Fold these 4 entries.
Entry 1:
Amino acid sequence: MRVAVVCPRGRVTKHRVLRAIKNSGFYFTEVVTWPRRFLVLELKGYFNRHNRKVKAFPTKWSTFGRDAPLERDKKIVGYCDAFIAIYDGDAPDVRNFLAMAIASGKAVHVEMIG
């Protein structure tokens, strides 16, 4: 199962992400995320040790301009089987991603932070 993990910029630690993944109850073979440096680096090290893949979908600003984040999120929603969002109730990027994930009809787990 491919699971996307998204969170607001700069507000989440690796431990919070791992706890959200555990709390979701999803069994996964691959973690997909936005190209946030800490998420990719931290998670890659952890999940590689546990024989799980980590894939970051790039935001292609030069191709899509202002719509680049939306296009990236559409690709992630189409690629993944389930979604985990760590959400503070405020971040528009996470809110928009959640709306797409819920509309897809696939499994969604939300961890609120605040």
Entry 2:
Amino acid sequence: MKEALSEEKVQEIILEILCGERLVRHECNGKWQIIRFVYPSASERQHCSMLEQESLEKALESGLPFEKDLTEAMRESVFCEDDLETLQALQKKVEGFEKLLKKRIKGTDLYLKDLEKLAVLKHKTSELELKRSIVNEYTAEYRAKEDKYFELLSFSAHSISGERLWSNAQGLLESSKISFAYSLLNSFLDFYWGYNTAIMREIARAAQWRTMYLSAEKGARLTDKAAKDLPVAYLHLMSWSMYYQSISEMLSSDRPSEEVIENDEQLDEFMRAYQAKVSKEAQATSRKNHKSKGSLSATDKDQVVVTAESRSYVNIHKEDGYSDTSIISGRVNEDVQGDTSYSEIKEKRNKSRDKASKRRQRAKAKQGGVR
């Protein structure tokens, strides 16, 4: 299991994400320089996207091909089929050693030997990946992307006091050594795209962040930035925070243990199994409901809807002691149950009227003193 971040590092990352800024230290012309990266605004990113399209058109005019149009001969001259097979084999070995190290006891001789072997494999893998990436440098898309990111870098790079260091990408490239420019670009892209998923998940679980996240749910503001200007890292962190919040709100009988929650792979496996279980239960419930309700008619539940067009419809007045709803909806009225004919219903209605008339006569007689 990977080593957990220190509380200081967690706090540093949280502040960086909320502020949308990072301080980096680079050597330029023999002097060390502190540069503040500020995440580009939405309008600045939009400007750079337009620049990318213009650069793509210029690259095509200059003769650079699309990536899909690269000939096999061009690819083979830089990164051949044997290189690809070697790279794939190395990637599998790296993956295997990473899984093996998780089972080793940290600090033991066996662990240290495997760690050393993994470092060698990763170095060989990175060399081949770099070799493969060089192929793309001969394409129009690569040239356009490079122009875009250098322009974004010029928007982002500020002095420690807050002034922009370069007005555009051209100014950066003309005033600096090419090695410095590309080194700074790599640092910027690392900041621009945010931290990897494992770190984002660890921050989302951290007590320091959980307190801030829960306060935001109650109305507290975590950042002054507009939604359109939020850094990618902020969006990723909020997404993982909502994920862990939903887990904390699960029933205690369903919720995974703290040990599982702390382990990304185990938690992902647990949640996949849980979602499959919930989905299966929902489908079973749906089928059961359809079978017990959806396939039955009103008559299967002793309920009949009698419309005015039906020969069984009788307009029974409330003054006769009945209500229309006793027949129109609900359980079938005793007067119309079974195979009762229209004439029988009419006869019962007349008898009911006669009884009601006699009750009214007796009531009047009592009021008048007549017995």
Entry 3:
Amino acid sequence: MSRFQSLISLVVLFASFVFATAQDEARYKAGYEAWQKAIATTNVDSTFWFVTDGPPIPVRDAFLELKQFGPNMVPFLVNELRREEDRDRLTRLVLLLMYGFGLDMIATKPGVLMSYYDLAPESRQLFLREWDAGRFLEPQEFLKDVRRGSNEDAVVTRVDPRNLVGVGKFGPFALPFIAETLKKHNSAELFAAYLWTTGQIEIYSEYLNNPQSLCPTRQEKLRHLKEWTKANGRKIDKLHPLHEKLKAALEE
């Protein structure tokens, strides 16, 4: 992809977000602030910040409200990420982008044990560097390099989440690549990446330990992705480059 094409794609994405902002930013803002407030004012462990079932609690209800917006909300959250100055709110936002919207952005360091609170500033810096460079608009070539040498048709009894990091960092923007690959290969790892990037966390967690329990065939995996896309199209329709690429990738 040429620099000029990248610039055009960035302009298109920005223009689509400006349109979305005019219509939806107030709802995004209200939902996001309600989620932040629910965490700040209740004594709820971080493991419950992203649950979608169980008894009604303010944090769960606030998260469900955000889930209805889907990936369309990501550009709004990136802008919030860019200007957030409070470390606690920043840490929660980084985790929201990760566990709520599938962007695996925590900048871990091998052999170094650090808390999410400590990792949040550098994670933000690295993520924004790639976002601003347009890497999320055209991740296909990078993903091909990441997956080169992987046996996409391997039958596995467990999926190692460490093998998903390269794909997971792009969140929903990796979906066209995943769809194209699943049209040719029965990849348990990429199906797990799809579950992660679309925020199906509970199913994802179960699938890691028993990948043969859900959609064991390539056709079933692709059907699952198609059904999710059909049911959730309105949640990605404002991310025009992503939406069109995913629909094209799923065509027979």
Entry 4:
Amino acid sequence: MAVLPSNVTNGDFKKADAFINLSLPRTDGSKCKLGDTGIKLYVDKADHIALINMFQDNPESAVELFRKHLIIDYREANVAPAALAFGE
């Protein structure tokens, strides 16, 4: 298990301890990175430290496990939420 600096802060900003970057291949062989910063991981969250340790201990195996178990949920930002069930 690796020891990472624990959540360096800069004012109200909490710095991530690690990142998982996602990208898609382009037809020219380059990559299209999804998101500006990747998925931020923090050592003060048990699930995150488990992911960090998994990637540090065996990166190749971790990538395959991550791919196998990843659940993708797509939502549009401009969709209004459903009305409350008890309504008017």
